[in-house]
């Protein structure tokens, strides 16, 4: 069976499980999903410039998540991927980011990728720090590109978000929409002309 190099098995409940890795809480709560706001792109530019002022302009800083998809319903939080040479060498990058307002909230690994998550109060931001060989940032870019090009999956994902909000209290928001995210990835992998991928239906 052919498998796309970015495929990962579905991980229902993974967001709830990672809460034990939390080291602090975010400055600003996300709030509920809302209609796409054109100002989110300008907010990302502010975050990118802030990271550049702290670490230099040669860092890879990418706008990911739903706020990077025009027309997509999203919580008003800018998701950003930052690549650093060594995530574990925190002294090389963390104090500089904290000095410009970021706060470390998670030290963990996601599907084997070393990961740190920081937040910023204004604009409300999730800054995800990875190493250059990490798979997860590549998955993020593929997901954004797919949603930008496929309005039917934007609608499917928007409904999953609405259902996740309705399920609040029973299951964490990201876990509640994990099945739909997995299915969208499956379609993106199957359609990728650069890699063979046989369907991997979720259990």
Could you describe the 3D structure shown?
- By secondary structure, this protein is of the alpha+beta class.
- It has a single domain (15-191), classed as Beta Polymerase, domain 2, CATH 3.30.460.10.
- It contains seven helices and five strands; from the N terminus they run H-H-E-E-H-E-E-E-H-H-H-H.
- It has helices at residues 14-17, 39-55, 94-99, 136-149, 151-166, 173-176, 178-191, and strands at residues 60-64, 78-83, 103-110, 113-120, 125-130.
- Strands 1-2-5-4-3 form a five-stranded mixed sheet, with helices on both faces.
- The longest helix has 17 residues, at 39-55.
- It is globular, with a radius of gyration of 17 Å.
- The mean pLDDT is 95.
Write out the strand line-up for the largest beta sheet, numbering strands in chain order.
1-2-5-4-3
Share of residues in helices:
25-40%
The count of strands amounts to 5
Q: Main sheet? A: 5 strands, mixed
Return residue spans where pLDDT drops below 50 for at least 5 consecutive residues. Answer: none
CATH top level is Alpha Beta
Q: What does the average pLDDT come to?
A: 95
Coarse shape: globular
Name of the CATH superfamily: Beta Polymerase, domain 2
- Share of residues in strands: 15-25%
User: How many DSSP helices?
Assistant: 7
Order of helices and strands: HHEEHEEEHHHH
CATH topology: Beta Polymerase, domain 2
Whole-number count of domains: 1
Structural category is alpha+beta
* CATH architecture annotation name: 2-Layer Sandwich
Distance between the termini: 17 Å
Round the Cα radius of gyration to an integer and report it: 17 Å
């Amino acid at each position: 069976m052919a498998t796309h190099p970015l495929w990962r098995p579905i991980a229902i409940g993974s967001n709830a499980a990672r809460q034990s890795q939390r080291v602090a809480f975010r400055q600003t709560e996300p709030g509920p999903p809302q209609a796409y706001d054109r100002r989110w792109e300008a907010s990302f530019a502010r975050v990118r410039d802030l990271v550049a002022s702290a670490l230099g302009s040669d860092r890879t800083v990418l706008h990911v998540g739903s706020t990077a998809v025009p027309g997509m319903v999203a919580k008003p939080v800018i998701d950003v991927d930052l690549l650093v040479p060594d995530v574990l060498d925190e002294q090389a990058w963390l104090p500089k980011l904290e000095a410009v307002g970021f706060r470390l909230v998670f030290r963990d690994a996601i599907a084997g990728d070393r990961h740190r998550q920081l937040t910023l109060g204004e604009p409300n931001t999730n800054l995800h720090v990875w190493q250059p060989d990490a798979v997860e940032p590549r998955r993020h870019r593929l997901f954004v590109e797919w949603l930008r090009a496929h309005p039917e999956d934007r609608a499917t994902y928007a409904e999953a978000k609405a259902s996740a909000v309705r399920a609040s209290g029973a299951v964490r928001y990201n876990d509640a929409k994990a099945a739909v995210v997995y299915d969208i990835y499956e379609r993106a992998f199957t359609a990728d002309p650069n890699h063979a991928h046989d369907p991997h239906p979720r259990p």
